[in-house]
Write a structure and sequence with these properties.
Nucleotidyltransferase, domain 5, Actin, Chain A, domain 4, alpha+beta, 392 residues, 6-stranded mixed beta sheet, 13 helices
Length: 392
């Protein structure tokens, strides 16, 4: 028997056998291109598209939940097919991640697809934070408390753990993630410079290449107002033309301007867009920022656990890859936490793959069989046995 680990994120799916070092990272969507009318691109087939301008994304997830099963099945069939993993379902069990605070109907659909359509011999389903904290437990012995901050595509979740179990009454969600950052950056650039509302793929790359988290917002804003060389914030970003430039890139300073290049100048957008993670109210989302949410969640936990939770805060998810993210969370949290509490905020060594790696560790552990539901158990008890076993 082999085990396949599927971290089924809203933006990308990370999939691979638990014996492998790294997963395949595949966009969790079906893509149509304006320039290619005769086919669709599933997941990483987008690499075969020569012109990435004006892409139309068909997403399996809406607002953080798996709702479009037709799209998801196409992506899964592609991932598990002979051109990718070439999974033999009769001999391969699965570890699958699901959305946080997931609906029971979605959970039942996942279980039914794997057991009834794919006919897998066993399944384990949980949300990503469980596998992230399991990875931390394996790395750091006697870690009985930790707080997972998972800032992903649709939402940011703050989940405290005690002895391997989530403190569910304290778990909280912030309605801001990478999708909102990219969409807001598209709006700002379209208003100030160039219409890019249809260029989600390109602007998402621009965000990843140029944005950072400010440690002193007002000081950086004053610096961004400067003229000439004293402005260390402003950058020129060369957009791809898909003839000579396949991917956008930052233009090197003091290089000659090529008249054929299309350039977007980014200045205060570089840090004002990620600032939404800390002040969602800037765009009318009346919720706490990430540091406030961390302090609030820890305050909801039993008093004897609070100092240990402050000592073990783990940051994961795509947004945590932004430069300066960890330092800013620590800085803001230090002003909110009680003075006598020591704070330790750690960025996972692989923020995007953290839950996949945790799943591989769990799948290779001696007690893994205590977590799974087998096909025979599912056939006998139905989806009820999954609801009972996967209550993490």
């Amino acid at each position: 028997m082999t085990t396949v680990m599927l971290d089924n994120g809203a933006y990308t799916a990370k999939v691979g056998y638990i014996s492998e070092m790294n997963p395949k990272i595949i966009p969790n969507c079906v893509i149509k291109a304006k320039t290619v009318r005769n086919r669709i691109f599933i997941g990483n087939q987008i690499d075969e598209c020569k012109d990435l301008s004006g892409l139309y994304f068909l997403l399996a997830f809406q607002k953080g939940y798996l709702t479009n099963w037709e799209i998801e099945k196409q992506v899964w069939d592609h991932m598990f097919g002979k051109n990718e993993l070439a999974v033999n379902f009769e001999e391969s069990g699965f570890i699958v991640t699901e959305s946080y605070l997931n609906f029971k109907s979605i959970q039942e659909s996942i279980d039914e697809i794997f057991f009834e359509e794919y006919q897998v011999p066993f399944l384990f389903r949980c949300n990503p934070s469980y596998l992230i904290q399991y990875k931390q437990q394996r790395k750091k012995k006697n870690l009985f408390c930790c707080l997972v901050v998972d800032s992903g595509y649709s939402y940011t979740h703050v989940v405290p753990y005690h002895n391997g179990r989530a403190v569910k009454m304290a778990m909280r969600r912030i309605s801001i993630g990478g999708k909102i950052l990219t969409n807001h950056l598209k709006e700002v650039i379209s208003y100030r410079q160039l219409m890019v509302m249809d260029e989600t793929h390109v602007i998402n790359q621009l965000k990843e290449d140029t944005c950072f988290v400010s440690q002193d917002f007002y000081a950086d804003m004053n610096l961004a107002k400067q003229k000439g060389p004293s402005n260390k914030i402003a950058l020129d970003y060369v957009l791809p033309d898909y003839a000579h430039i396949k991917r956008g890139h930052i233009k090197e300073p003091d290089t000659e301007i090529n008249s054929s290049e299309q350039i977007i100048r980014v200045c205060n957008e570089r840090f004002s867009i990620p600032e939404l993670l800390f002040h969602p109210s800037d765009i009318g989302i009346h919720e706490m920022g990430i540091p406030e949410a961390i302090a609030y969640v820890i305050g909801l936990c039993p008093e004897e656990l609070q100092p240990f939770l402050y000592l073990n805060i783990i940051l994961t998810g795509g947004n945590s890859c932004l430069p300066g993210f960890r330092e800013r969370v620590f800085k803001d949290l230090r002003t909110l936490a009680p003075d006598h509490f020591e704070i330790n905020v750690r960025l996972d060594d692989s923020p995007i793959q953290a839950s996949w790696q945790g799943g591989c560790l769990l799948g290779n552990s001696p007690d893994f069989t205590n977590h799974i539901v087998t096909k025979d158990q599912f056939d006998e008890h139905g989806v009820g046995i999954c609801q009972e076993m996967f209550n993490y």
